Predict the structure.
Amino acid sequence: MEVEERFEWEGRSIAWGRAGSGPPVVFCHGTPFSSRVWSKYADALCAGFTVHLWDMPGYGESSKDPAHAVDFGAQAKAFAALLEHWELDRPRVVAHDFGGAVSLRAMLAEKAAYSSLMLVDVVAIPPSGSPFFQFVKRHPTTLNELPAYIHEAVLRAYVTAASHRGLREPDLEELVAPWLTDEGQSAFYRQIAQYDETFLIENERLVGELAIPVQVVWGRDDAWIPTATGRRLAGLIPAASYVEVPEAGHLMQYDAPVALATVLREWLSR
């Protein structure tokens, strides 16, 4: 499934796509990824659901204007505006990584309404950030000046580390491609530099107010965000369920596609 449509919002051009028929489902990607992490799952669900994908501003096929903020707050506002543009009535939302905090904030601060929420290896509550992530935050402008071939090598190593089993070369190329242009290289380091854990602290304070069905799904071998964080997140949300998937890292979509597809379909079909 491709993101070939455009939503113009506050100077940003947001790439999105829709396919299928049935109850609405919206997928949110994380960082440094794009809607491509969910495209095959969207294809598989089209027979029973109307599936929506989008690339956050600053990611994938969406605009990457350096003047536009790409922090959790800005992305939550963009998501809430996109949901309103789609005129969806309480969709089921599935979020990964950074998309977890974005979808939570859109609901808790921007008053977006969902019927259910699945959180897959999400950034949602503190602490967060790999050692590389923290290093980039301290040196964003220096790294932005890296020669292209070194930037690509760093990026490929970073993204590969999100997988427990290892990524196929075509999948790795697809994931890193948006960041390899001059515009993309700047955007990659900018989104890390603007990462603000204050939003996660606020999430932790507010998630107890959630009154919709929530399922937290975690890769048992996630090297980026430990399972302890996933279990703690589930414990903060009233009546949330927690599922742990063996032999899966942070990129569960690639490490355990059958297990994730099974969990996903069972959740959405409830």
Summary: The chain is about 40% helix and 20% strand. The CA atoms of residues 5 and 16 lie 5 Å apart. The longest helix spans residues 72-86. The mean pLDDT is 96.
